[in-house]
Every structure is written in structure tokens, then in C-alpha cells.
Amino acid sequence: MLVLEKSRIYQGTLILVNRAYPVRCQQPKQELCSPFPEQAQIMMEQESARMLKKLLREVLTNDLVLSGKQGVLLQHGNAIVGVSGYRSREEQVEIFENSLLENGRDFTEKYVAFPDHSEHQTGLAIDLAENQPQIDFICPEFPYQGICQEFREKMAEFGFVERYPKAKQKITGIGAEPWHFRYVGAPHAALMAELGMVLEEYIEWLKQFDLKKHPCILHRRREEVAIGYVKAKGDYTRIEGLEALAGRIRKAWQMRNEAKNRTERFRIKISGNNVDGFICTCRMGTQA
Fold first, then answer.
1. What does R_g of the chain's alpha carbons equal in angstroms?
2. Sorting pLDDT into bands at 50, 70 and 90, what band is 286?
3. CB–CB of 161/192 below 8 Å?
4. pTM of the full structure
5. CB 184 within 8 A of CB 161
6. String of b and e for 51-87 (b: at least 16 CB within 10 Å)?
């Protein structure tokens, strides 16, 4: 059994940040790092930075191998660049106010989050661009083709989602931003893609899966997964049922793989949802 303080509701890779739910916990700067060797000023939360670095290496390396020419290798090696990662509250205020002056209120409220309501303040979000001589800071180009589309096709495997798709503008309250990606972690990114949900929908959908009574069980090729929701109760919330759930997915995994020689790994991760509770994710398998 675990006991979590109320403040933990506002921390973790699955926190929902939008106009209704502000950032409650500022990301400590010592827990930030850059996923870009040549752009040290662009920072992210450490886990999301590590996974973005892996994702970019996967996409760019695949592209380099396919190209086969050294000149093209160098060109594609930095085909995707960072535009904006973590922002302090002060930086978000400055960006918002500058956009009001330069672009007007309608444009700003469509593409720039209000201070304390920006995912960039969590360190879990990144704006990316196709590398070009001129890159727009507010609306960078990240097209649905070429290397950028290859990035999208791989991103769920590494825990990333396109946060503001055009078809979901009424739900997110933000205009389509093909350049803005959010780390939610595995297996949540893949599940969101399968369900066709944005984070607002996904957080609500997960509430049906009570951790103790009715968790969501997923049988993946390389792992067994269980996801459960726990509603917060007062200043302290007791998380019960993790041991039983862990035993359940361990047994299911071993039954599927008893004749195979595999290096197994078991992980439990708990994230607040920034709304009203916690999401517990148990994973057993060979997935990193």
C-alpha cells in the first residue's frame, strides 16, 4: 500500500493542463535537460528529454540508412530541430504579451496558452520544426510528410502524442498545432492513438478503470499492462491493490512466455492527472 499526498495529483507525466486545469507545481530546473546536443537552451523534463532523444535518433538514423549518401546523411541528421521546450511562468507571460502586441488577441488565444495554463511550463511539451533558414517561433512548420511524418509514425512507441490535432479543437480549446508534441509515456501514447483520443478525453476515459476493482488490462506483444484510476481523498490518498495487480500481470506474462528465454522487467508508475486523482500503470515484459 502507498500513501500519496494531495500535491501528487498535480505531478507526473499524465497531468492534464489546459484552460480549466492550470499548472500547480513548477518543474525544478535541476530536473531539466536538453534532448538536443546542439540546442542546449531547449530543455525538457528528464524522462521526456531522454525519450525524445531516442525517438529522434530512431527516426533520423532510419532515414540516414535509407538515403545511403554521406552528403544526404549530414543534411538529414539535423532535419528536425527544437523550437521551444520548457518555459518558466515569466517566459510564458512574455511570449503571451508579445503575441498580443504583434498578432492580436484572436490569434494569440488560438495558438498561445495563457500563463499557468501552458504545457510548456511542465517540461513535458516540445515544439518542433522542419529545419529551414527561417522558423516561425509561434507557428513553426512541421508538415505531414517526409521526415516529420516519419516522426509522427514512430512517436507513440516512445511515449509522445500530437497534442492539438485539428479535429479536436473544440475539446482542447487550442487551434491545430502540428508542431506541438506532448510526452505522456508508454503505453498511454499508443493507447490514445488507438482510441483516437486527446488527453482531455483520455483522462476522463480512464476513470472507469478502478485500480482495485476493474483495471484496464492490455495484452501487448512485448508486455502485459494494467492501468487503474484512484480518486484522491482529502490530504492523503491510500493506493491499495497494487500488489495483487502486479501478481496478476506477472502471472499472465509468464503464461504467455513460459517457454521463452527473455529478460523480464517489471515497473509501476503513478502519475497525478491534475484534476482529481491518480493513474497507476503496471507493466511486465521486455519493453524498455
1. 20
2. confident
3. yes
4. 0.91
5. yes
6. bbbbbbebbbeebbeeeeeeeeeeebeebbbbbbbbb
Report the SS3 class of residue 224.
strand
Beta bridge partners of 162: 181
Among this protein's residues, is 177 annotated catalytic? yes
pLDDT in tens, 153-210: 999 999 999 999 999 999 999 999 999 999 999 999 999 999 999 999 999 999 999 9
d(CA 118, CA 86): 10
Count of beta carbons in the 10 Å neighbourhood of residue 113: 25
Cα–Cα dist 255/51, whole Å: 30
- Give the chain's mean pLDDT: 90
Measured CA angle at 266 (ends 162, 1), to 5 deg: 100
Check 45, 130, 177, 224 and give the catalytic one: 177
**CA–CA separation, 36 and 188 (whole Å):** 24
Q: Residue 78 has what pLDDT?
A: 78
Number of H helices, E strands in the chain: 9, 12
pLDDT tens track for 245-264: 888 888 888 887 764 555 67
Cα of first residue to Cα of last residue in the chain, in angstroms, is: 25
Asked if residue 244 has pLDDT above 90, the reply is no
Q: Which residues contact 96 (CB under 8 A, 6 or more apart)?
A: 108, 112, 113, 114, 115
Give the 3-state secondary structure of 122-167: HCCEEEEEECCCCCCCCCCCCCCCHHHHHHHHHHHHHCEEEEECHH
Pairing mode of beta strands 277-285, 223-231: antiparallel
Cell of 89: 511562468
Residue 55 main-chain phi, psi, to 5 deg = -65, -45
